[in-house]
């Protein structure tokens, strides 16, 4: 039985992923490092520190420099967030949140961002949220499952009773490692392994997700039965 949904924030409920790209791009330009959207894809769902390491790509830097650059990038990002309009919610997201709430399920937000509360403020989504786990909550970021497990504990549910909605490869990996049901959003090659995959939340309803899970269970059961029969033969 599904008792809760845990949503990533960036790229799932709102397009803060674009703000992250613009902030990293500005920093990269200042440091003279080539950076484009393709390189930005590897930063989806990972921590600030790991993102900076990916940006530097082996270039030498002192610990002090890295701390300064991370803070500079975050400053650029917060500047953009403060301009975010309240209606900057991705298509289908608010509808799904409403359906999950009406179904009596708990809702959590699990994002690697340390600005999660600011984003929820800007979007006015606190009325839908029962628990938040963010970049301050755990020591190990995605792809470790800690962030989702932390959120599940706050919601008082077991991983097998919760659905994680993610758009990043690191997030899907983390949710699967934690034993959650996983909805992947975006290109199948990026969210491979998720139990259900959709291009985005636009037009996706709660019944669509639950039906996809039922299909996954049926297919898995059939494969298991076939495998067992073949072993007997």
What can you tell me about this protein's structure?
- The protein has 233 residues and is α/β, with parallel strands linked by helices.
- The chain has 2 domains: 155 residues, Rossmann fold (3-Layer(aba) Sandwich), CATH 3.40.50; 66 residues, Putative phosphatase, domain 2 (DNA polymerase, domain 1, Orthogonal Bundle).
- Helix content is 49%, strand content 11%.
- The protein has 9 helices and 6 strands.
- A 6-stranded parallel beta sheet has the order 3-2-1-4-5-6.
- The longest helix has 27 residues.
- The chain is globular.
- The C terminus is likely disordered.
Question: Secondary-structure map with pairings?
Answer:
Layout: E1 4-7, H1 16-31, H2 37-41, H3 48-56, H4 63-81, H5 93-102, E2 106-110, H6 116-123, E3 131-133, H7 146-155, E4 162-166, H8 169-178, E5 181-185, E6 196-198, H9 206-232
Parallel strand pairs: 1-2, 1-4, 2-3, 4-5, 5-6
Please give a handful of descriptors for the protein shown.
233 residues; alpha/beta; DNA polymerase, domain 1; 2 domains; six-stranded parallel β-sheet; 9 helices; disordered C terminus
Count every beta strand, where a strand is a DSSP E run of 2 or more residues. Answer: 6
Cross-sheet strand order for the largest sheet = 3-2-1-4-5-6
Helix content: 40-55%
Oligomeric form: single chain
Largest sheet: 6 strands, parallel
Structural class: alpha/beta
Helical run tally: 9
Summarize this, please?
49% of the residues lie in helices and 11% in strands. With 233 residues, the chain is an alpha/beta fold.
